[in-house]
Amino acid sequence: MADEEKNETTEETPEAPVEEPTAEAEAPVAEEPPSEEPAAEGDAPVAEETPAAETPAAEAPAAEPAAEAAPAPQSGPKPKRKRLPRALRPQKTRPKREVATERKPISREAKPEHDRGRRQERRGVVVSDAMDKTIVVKVESIRSHPKYKKVIRRSTKFHAHDEQNSAHVGDVVRIVETRPLSKTKHWRLAEIVEVAK
After folding, report:
1. Model-level pTM?
2. How would you write the pLDDT of the chain (197 residues) with one tens digit per residue?
3. DSSP 8-state assignment for residue 70
4. Within 10 A of 161 (CB to CB), how many other CB atoms are there?
5. How far is residue 110's CA from residue 142's CA, in Å, rounded to a whole number?
6. Angle, nearest 10°, between helix axes 26-40 and 46-69?
7. How far is the C-alpha of 66 from the C-alpha of 24, rounded, in Å?
8. Pairwise CA distance, residues 11 & 5, whole Å
9. Rounded CA gap, 119 and 174, in Å?
10. 3-state secondary structure of 174
11. Helix or strand or coil: residue 90?
């Protein structure tokens, strides 16, 4: 019977270090065989317990190199988690629109009195009146940058039609959009807001 117990202890000790290579795992293995022997055989002499207690102690140095060799396979790359195929993945559902049962009536705006749309107006300073019946008006636009909020000044020059040659350099005038009168002229003088001093 003592031979069978020794075989059991030798079989159990190599398995424990493979599963848990730490030194703490070896201590419970050494304690388990003595606790099992008195429970299994109450009449067993004390002399048989000492060889069983000595065998784990004698095998402990042999088990340490096995414990050191065991972590080597575990230190390799971790197994990859398998990803689900696209059809089996949880899908993000968008809220669905309600299907309209009745059609809404088309709302039309009131028809304007005249066919032409609203004409654009600009206000600027006359920078040149050298041409006949034509003035050059400089219009400045000031706005802040949408992202950086810096104030940006931009200026544009328009050629405007002045029938009486009434506007002069430095005058503040209001010009209105009109049909093309020449290649560069599609504005006309509406009024002189402020005369230059």
Report:
1. 0.42
2. 555 555 555 555 455 455 555 544 444 444 455 444 444 444 544 544 544 445 444 454 554 554 455 555 567 777 777 788 888 887 777 788 888 788 878 888 787 676 667 789 999 999 999 999 999 999 999 999 999 999 999 999 999 999 999 999 999 999 999 999 999 999 999 999 999 88
3. T
4. 16
5. 34
6. 150
7. 15
8. 10
9. 12
10. strand
11. coil
Block residue for tokens 């065991």: 70
Q: Helices 26-40 and 2-19 meet at what angle, rounded to 10?
A: 150
Give the bridge partners for 137, in sequence order: 126, 158
Structure tokens at 20: 């848990």
Instruction: Report the amino acid identity of residue 78.
Output: K
Task: Give the strand pairing for 121-128 and 185-194.
Answer: unpaired
CB-based burial, 70-83: b 16+ in 10 Å, e otherwise: eeeeeeeeeeeeee
